[in-house]
Amino acid sequence: MLDNEYKSGFVAIIGRPNVGKSTLLNYIIGQKVAIISSKAQTTRNKIAGIYTTEEAQAVFLDTPGIHKPYNSLDEYMEKASFGALNEADAVWFVVDATEKRGGGDNFIIERLKKIKNTPIYLLVNKIDLIKKKNDLFQAISSYTVDLLDWSEVYPISAKSGEQVNALVDDVIEKLHPGPQYFSKEQITDHPERFLVAELIREKILQLTEQEVPHSIAVVIDSMKKDGVNEKLHIQASIVVERSSQKNIIIGKQGNMIKRIGQLARKDIENLLGERVYLETWVKVEARWRERPQALQELGYNSKQDL
Known about the structure:
By secondary structure, this protein is α/β, with parallel strands linked by helices. The protein has helices at 21-29, 72-83, 103-112, 133-144, 164-174, 192-207, 243-250, 255-272, 292-297, and strands spanning 7-15, 47-52, 56-62, 90-96, 120-125, 152-155, 217-225, 232-240, 276-284.
């Protein structure tokens, strides 16, 4: 293929919380680049997954689930989501086939109506959970009647991969000729420290109750090789808003923090391909989600995410 035939571009993945955007990104890339949990607001940053072939490179932008903002962190996430639309060559709007269209979906659709000259796809996800064909037909119809002139409509399962490969081929076909932005070995634009912090946060989301997940942040204090046993020594701080949350994270006799560390270490070793020694501390930063300076210190105002 000639250089001027090489295609590239950015695809923004947008939708409400828990519709499966991160699961979709991970399936496409074939490796975990975005953490997953059943809790809302799992994704807080715009995360790029880089898909490269001999003919094209598509950069898929996973974005935080859009919801009504209640604090500065929520506002940051909303800006990160809608900001991705400004650099997108195509947009995927992901909805949950098992849920009725609601006010949050309508809010996003009104924003999408302002986009000109960019293909906008409707992805109806979680079709593996639909038992009756008529239920799927009704789910699709609720988004396709007098709402928006979708470029394409794809019923998919991000979990099983049904229709996903066809979807990727379709969007790449619509990309314009362009450069290869990243090396073919690169799968994300985020540094290792970010990915490691996210893996630790994922385990906390999976293991703790509803009160805790929204109030935590994870910061990597240091990552350095241990010259004695050749392990990568990682020190991380888990930030919470209240002492009661700190007690939950630590757990009885330290059992919870130990379990978090064990599960996170396995994923970190798989990610980095080397043995890891992980140390974690829990500290309290009252109302950090409401304080812009605290958000900055915890990495939630980086210009690259907005």
